[in-house]
Amino acid sequence: MGFIPGLGGSVVDWIAYGHIFQTTKDREGFGKGDIRGVLAPETPNNAKEGGGLIPTLLFGVPGSGSMAVFLGGLLILGIQPGPAMVTEQVDLLYTAIWSLALANVFGAGLCIFLSKPITRLTIIPFAYLAPFMILIITLASYQASRGWGDLIALLVMGILGWVMKQYGWPRPAALIGYVLSDNIETYLFISVQRYGISWMTRVGVIILGLIIIASLALGIFYQTKKTPKSRSASKDHATQAF
Amino acid sequence: MQHRLFSVRLVFAAIMVLAFAYGMYEAFSYAYLARIFPLYISLVMFVLACINLAQEIRISWKRVQVSGVGFVDLESDWDIPTSTVMERFIRFLALLLLLYASIWLVGYSLSITIFLVFFYRFLTGTSWWVAFGAGFAGLGFISLISKLMVIDWPSGIIQNWIQLPWPLK
């Protein structure tokens, strides 16, 4: 999932997390420190940089935020990404590939050695971390477009996220939709302009549409199961909240 | 309480149906090219919202248990009583609103420094020395980021009246 270019970290992390959650029988530990909930999203998260290199180096289209920075660096050095990378600048291409591979190996080694002190972060009381978290969150949101609108959007989206959490509305779906909306708008527009309404009759679209319908139908089929007797004793989180 | 949860979910699902129905209605008033995205998205989302509404009606009517991948974002405060969760939320929201009001008044750099000092002193319960240390650490951090990323933090009303030195200006 991670190496597919264009999806981005926010999307693949949640898809992987959703998948592990869906396919695991004992889900009680999720959200409370179960290591599988960390391993599942981190695996595609590490794989996405390799996938992001493909459109960045071959087409000059960055596949993620970090690849946009990498592309900017290449252009500053006077290197023009494009199909010529695989014919005329193979040495540079392999340097980029091996750098990424070695960075992952060194990163993994560092994480193994530093895992103990890093895990100690989790025992710091929330009251010490919260103010600095607020600082970093406000700072990160403000630098997006550097206006008051960013801070207001942060507050509104934060409240919306809290309400969604309390009433059991899935936030990952909203997040993924929000992240992908730009791409959907661009490519829907291009498809309709190029093919009109007949874009929906193309083979690829039909196959993808059928997969989406099947996953939706299966989701609805398995989502609700009739257990009125066990409801009072249910450990279901949605019913425990209120 | 369970009834309240389901009725709120039902109202939300109904609002979604109405919102996307309005999206379709509104899209028809646009020119052809401008209509493409809102119409297609509203149409798909309207169908999905109707399915969701039907599910919510079924859940609240037949009292079935909810489960599934929709609940992947579980967090530990599901176990905490509602009153505590609400109390924490209101306290946290009030803090943020206070921070925003102070940004509007004295600018980001100054307000976040004061925020850190008062948070550490009165909510965390540290000594004034530690609180001031945290405040200056925060100010140092945002000054560094400001310098490295060439960012001017939002200024407040006070900056219009008084000329403050960098990074407080």
What would you say this structure looks like, in words?
The complex is a heterodimer of chains A (242) and B (169). In chain A, 70% of the residues lie in helices and 1% in strands. Mean pLDDT of chain A is 80; it is low at 226-242. Chain A has a domain at 1-123. Chain A contains nine helices and one strand. With 242 residues, chain A is an all-alpha fold. In chain A, helix 1 crosses helix 7 and helix 5 (126-145) packs across helix 6. The two termini of chain A are 36 Å apart. Chain B has 169 residues and is mostly helical. Chain B folds into two domains: 2-63; 96-158, no CATH class. Chain B is 74% helix and 1% strand. Chain B has helices at 2-27, 32-62, 82-106, 108-124, 128-149, 158-161, and one strand at 65-66. In chain B, helix 3 packs antiparallel against helix 4 and helix 4 (108-124) packs antiparallel against helix 5 (128-149). Chain B is flat and about 60 Å long. Chain B starts with a helix and ends in an 8-residue tail after the last helix. The mean pLDDT of chain B is 83. Chains A and B meet through helix 1, helix 5, helix 6, helix 7 and helix 8 of A and helix 1, helix 2, strand 1, helix 3 and helix 4 of B.
Summarize the structure.
The complex is a heterodimer of chains A (242) and B (169). With 242 residues, chain A is mainly α.
What brief labels describe this structure?
heterodimer; A: 242 residues; mainly alpha; 9 helices; 1% strand; disordered C terminus; B: 169 residues; 2 domains; 6 helices; 74% helix
Roughly how many Å is the radius of gyration of chain A?
22 Å
Give the H and E element order of chain B: HHEHHHH
Overall body shape of chain B? flat
Largest sheet of chain B: none
The secondary structure category of chain A is: mainly alpha
Number of continuous helical runs of chain A = 9
The radius of gyration of chain B is: 24 Å
- List the secondary-structure elements of chain A in sequence, H or E: HHHHHHHHEH
What would you call the quaternary organization? heterodimer
Reported for the largest beta sheet of chain A, the result is: none
| Count of strand segments of chain B | 1
Low-confidence sequence ranges of chain A = 226-242
**Pair with the biggest interface:** A-B, 63 and 62 residues
Proportion of beta-strand residues of chain A: under 5%
